[in-house]
Design goal:
CATH architecture of chain A: Alpha-Beta Complex
Number of strands of chain A: 4
Distance between the termini of chain A: 26 Å
Number of helices of chain A: 5
Helix content of chain A: 25-40%
Helix content of chain B: 25-40%
CATH class of chain A: Alpha Beta
Strand content of chain A: 15-25%
Number of strands of chain B: 17
Number of domains of chain B: 2
Oligomer: heterodimer
CATH topology of chain A: Sufe protein. Chain: A
Largest sheet of chain B: 7 strands, mixed
């Protein structure tokens, strides 16, 4: 178990300078994610253009893994359709939990694969993705309940 | 046992307290984590077990297990004798008046729930007040909130200051004509603050207020005498005082317990059952429905014996030295802030490091073999008070060493390097 496999340069960079961080007004969907184990909280806001994610931003506080994962996610899903983004959610979920999961074509998101060696940290990386899935699957995004990893 | 890595470093500051000899009695302290000697600094969450406790449980499981208070056969009688002998040890350990005052429960949480439901629920009326403090563990908040919902009583919170101290005057000023119950921690799990419980209990008693002390974090660090404290209830957990999980104690003043109805119904808490009605058993059995955690109680008895056999003054002095060393060493780090700086503290240090989230810090310390707790410590109102989502907490026991604290400080610096 090597620490620099978890805290790769991409992760450290996105933690230091999170992309798409801040408010998004007006948003079509706004969902809160909360990890009660470590107190991580994030608010994810999405603006759609038809079926596509036209813009996406997040705010909140969390550990390096949670912040970097949210930052990488917003970069990766911007411009994607709901179905494409949900497919990516499934692939990242596998990447975080399944040792045999392939990381090809995931680009920078592949940097999250180090997290699976740290079971206690998987929820940090997956919080934003669960929050996104909730925003994408909802019929009436305005009235979404908060997502919790517990 | 492989503890060579630690065996050659005698304690430098107290010749009468042989910490290395003590460590050898805790087998897990000899293990390595990620190739490094374990530095177990998470005793506030759960402490480790000495061989004496492990062997007592093992001996019971191998040779004496049967259900208690039931059979006429030999094993049942032996199991009963061991279980009740453990209760006797606890009577002496906290200086209770009699065995009737020692109720075995799952832990502090169950003890507080028992008091809330058995004492509080029948006796509280709408508008009555339950007084607690701002630094309580969730286990000393939520049972009272449930009780308020059930009875229409009101929860009143005594303030703490920026050092994490609770001043007796502030609490006393909130003890009013409607205050029925006062409940507080003896020692804060999140901050280490030792509360002025003796004075607070006296103040409550003078006003006819029932008192409960959450002693989960106090019992491992200091001798507790419930008669001297003069509280009505005192709750603590086995696993934080070197005994197994799933066993703890509710001490209750006999006169209080006597007038309280049973909390749970079942076997062992009855004298006679018919469909017309049931006669409850005597204390303490009235509150011990069902087959209890027999092996846990025996393990707890062994832990009590272990503590009684120690020089606890020397252990306390050693813990004081650990606290002073940790406070001084960690304070040398300009980016580190200690959260909870009460004048009277037990041996734990909660802290945050600028630029390193506590959760990341916990992972990096673990890679160096150092176990600390990170998170909200089941005390979210404390975190809110300090406007923090979480802290890291190093909590010490008498078997910790100054070297382990030096390793902690070095590993924190390593984490800071990763994040700069």
């Amino acid at each position: 178990m090597e620490l620099n496999d978890l805290y790769r340069d991409v992760i450290l960079d996105h933690n230091r300078q999170p992309r798409n961080f801040g408010a998004l007004e007006p948003a079509d969907a706004s969902v809160e994610g909360y990890n009660p184990l470590c107190g991580d909280r994030l608010t994810l806001r999405v603006k759609f253009s038809g079926d596509r994610i036209a813009d996406i931003k997040f705010e909140g506080q969390g550990c390096a893994i949670s912040t970097a994962s949210a930052s990488l996610m917003t970069e990766a899903v911007k411009g994607k359709t709901r179905a494409e983004a949900l497919l990516l959610f499934d692939r990242v979920h596998s990447l975080l939990t399944d040792d045999a999961a392939p990381s090809d074509h995931l680009g920078k998101l592949a940097a999250l694969s180090g997290v699976r060696e740290y079971p206690a940290r998987v929820k940090c990386a997956s919080l934003c993705w669960h929050t996104l899935a909730s925003a994408l699957k909802a019929e009436a995004p305005a009235s979404l309940p908060a997502v919790s990893t517990e | 046992m492989n503890n060579m890595a630690l065996a050659d470093k005698p304690s430098a500051f107290d010749a009468t307290f042989d910490v290395e000899a003590l460590r050898r009695q805790f087998p897990v302290l000899a293990r390595h984590v990620h190739g490094k000697p374990l530095a177990y600094l998470d005793n506030g969450a759960s402490a480790q077990r000495p061989t004496a406790v492990i062997q007592a449980v093992d001996d019971y499981e191998r040779h004496h297990h049967a259900n208690i208070h039931r059979g006429v056969h030999t094993l049942s009688q032996e199991a009963t004798a061991l279980y009740e002998a453990a209760r006797d040890k606890l009577v002496r350990f906290i200086n209770a008046r009699s065995r009737a005052e020692i109720i075995f429960v799952r832990g502090t949480t169950e003890a507080i729930n028992l008091v809330a439901q058995s004492y509080g629920r029948p006796s509280l009326k709408p508008g009555d007040e339950i007084l607690i403090t701002h630094l309580e563990h969730h286990a000393n908040i939520v049972p009272w909130q449930l009780l308020c919902e059930q009875t229409g009583a009101r929860l009143v919170i005594a303030p703490m200051n920026l050092r994490g101290e609770v001043h007796a005057e502030a609490v006393e000023s909130l003890m009013g004509p409607r205050t029925r119950i006062f409940a507080c921690a003896h020692v804060s799990n999140a901050l280490g603050t030792v509360l002025p419980v003796r004075r607070l209990i006296a103040a409550a008693k003078a006003r006819g207020i029932v008192t409960l002390i959450d002693g989960a974090q106090a019992v491992p660090h200091m001798p507790v005498d419930v008669r001297e404290l003069d509280c009505d209830f005192y709750a603590f957990s086995g696993h934080k005082m070197f005994a197994p999980t799933g066993i703890g104690v509710l001490y209750g003043r006999e006169a209080m317990l006597e007038r309280m109805p049973p909390w749970q119904g079942g076997g062992d808490m009855i004298l006679a059952v018919s469909f017309a009605g049931t006669t409850y058993n005597n204390l303490p059995y009235k509150f011990e429905a069902g087959t209890p955690n027999i092996s846990g109680a025996i393990g707890l008895g062994a832990a009590v014996e272990f503590l009684a056999g120690m020089d606890r003054d020397a252990a306390q002095a050693h813990e004081g030295a650990l606290l002073r060393h940790a406070t001084a060493t960690l304070s040398d780090n300009p980016k580190l802030r200690i959260v909870g700086t009460a004048e009277d503290k037990a041996s734990l240090v909660s802290f945050v490091v600028a630029g390193v989230h506590p959760h990341d810090l916990g992972t990096i310390l673990d890679a160096d073999g150092i176990a600390v707790r990170t998170g909200h410590h089941c005390a979210m109102p404390v975190m809110d008070f300090f406007k923090l989502p979480a802290t890291a907490r190093a909590s010490f026991a008498f078997y910790n060493t100054l070297e382990e604290i030096d390793r902690l400080a070095a590993s924190i610096e390593r984490a800071q390097k990763i994040f700069t």
